[in-house]
Amino acid sequence: MSDTTLSTETAADEAHSFDEYNAVKAALKPYIDAAKLGDGTLARSAFFDHAHIVGTIGGTFRNSDVEAFEASISSNGPSPQVEHHIAWIDISGPAAAARVEFIHWAGHRFTDFFVLYKQDGAWKISGKVYNAHAKT
Predict the structure, then answer these.
(1) What is the separation of C-alpha 83 from the centre of its chain, rounded to a whole number of angstroms?
(2) How far is it, in rounded angstroms, from Cα 135 to Cα 64?
(3) CATH class of 3-135
């Protein structure tokens, strides 16, 4: 294999990797937008039907299916001051994980860990675990 071939393959791999990173970011966007809008239906659209959500708020363990989680986001209402930061995204083939930090969401700071899967060309959230830190 020549250096030119190796460089071309590397460039193509890097472009693919960047495209996949952006695709995972786009898959998280409805969830991120739902935080500001308080729109559970929008958040729900980012998840597979089988998705499961667990975490703590105020030291209380919560265990939700995606329908209950949708209702919870809607009942909390909008958080117009919410800010987020995607701390990292890690991808391996059709599997990915992401960490997203939120502040000022329903009066809390959250750390969310997502597991995503790419099926039929589309990334969706398969599960989420989270921690609500001290109120903001």
Answers:
(1) 14
(2) 21
(3) alpha beta
